[in-house]
Design brief:
By secondary structure, the chain is mainly alpha-helical. It contains eight helices and no strands.
C-alpha cells in the first residue's frame, strides 16, 4: 500500500499531461472545425468539396495511423515535430474532422422554414445567422460535442506510443517497477472515470434539455 501511495504523484503528473493534451486538442479542433463546418453547411460547392474530402478521409483513418504519419512520416519531407506537438497535431486533425461534421449537422438539422421566415421579415444574412440559426445550432451542437470531448480524453492514451508520459505510460512505467498491475490499473481507470463520468452526465443533461 505504501508503494502505491508513493507512486501517486507520478501518476498525477501523467494525468496532468493527459489533460494538457486533451485541452489543446479540444481548443484547436474548435478553432479549425467550427468555421470549416459552417462553410460545409452554407458555402459554395468549390469550398465545400475539399472540406468534405478532408472530413471523410481523416475520419476514415485510424488515429494511430495519423499519429505515426505525423511523427514518423513527416520527417521524410523535413518536417520534424517533437513528440508532444506531433501528438497534438495528429489528434487535432482527427478531432477537427469530427467537429466539422457536428457543426454541419447542427445547422442542417434546423428546419428550412426558419431561414425562410427570417428572410420574409427582412433579416440580413448576418442577422439570420446570429439571431436565428446560430442559437438553435448551439443547442444541437453541445450534446455531441461533449461526447466528443470524452472521446478525446480516452483517445489521448494513444500518445503514450510516442513516448509521451501521459497517464497510460506512467501507469505502465510504475507497473514495470513495482510489478503490481491490478491495483494500479484500477487507480488509472478511476482517474479516467473521474474525468469522463461528469462529462458524460453533462452530455445527457444537455441532450434532454436541448434535443
Amino acid at each position: 500500500m505504501a508503494t502505491l501511495i508513493q507512486t501517486l504523484p507520478f501518476l498525477v503528473d501523467g494525468l496532468l499531461t493527459t489533460l494538457l493534451v486533451s485541452a489543446c486538442v479540444i481548443v484547436l479542433s474548435l478553432i479549425v472545425g467550427l468555421p470549416l463546418g459552417c462553410v460545409l453547411a452554407f458555402g459554395p460547392l468549390w469550398a465545400r468539396a475539399p472540406i468534405r474530402l478532408y472530413a471523410d478521409f481523416v475520419r476514415g483513418v485510424p488515429i494511430l495511423v495519423l499519429l505515426y504519419f505525423v511523427y514518423y512520416g513527416l520527417p521524410a519531407i523535413k518536417v520534424n515535430l517533437p513528440s508532444l506537438l506531433a501528438a497534438i497535431v495528429a489528434l487535432t486533425a482527427f478531432k477537427s474532422a469530427q467537429i466539422i461534421e457536428i457543426t454541419r449537422g447542427s445547422f442542417q438539422s434546423i428546419p428550412a422554414g426558419q431561414t425562410e421566415a427570417a428572410k420574409a421579415i427582412g433579416l440580413t444574412l448576418f442577422d439570420r445567422f446570429t439571431h436565428v440559426l446560430a442559437p438553435q445550432a448551439v443547442r444541437r451542437f453541445l450534446p455531441p460535442f461533449v461526447n466528443s470531448v470524452v472521446d478525446t480524453v480516452k483517445g489521448s492514451s494513444l500518445v503514450s506510443l510516442l513516448g509521451i508520459v501521459d497517464l497510460m505510460l506512467s501507469l505502465q512505467q510504475v507497473i514495470g517497477r513495482t510489478h503490481v498491475a491490478l491495483p494500479l490499473y484500477l487507480i488509472g481507470a478511476l482517474m479516467y472515470f473521474a474525468i469522463n463520468f461528469p462529462l458524460s452526465a453533462l452530455s445527457r443533461r444537455l441532450e434532454k434539455r436541448f434535443v
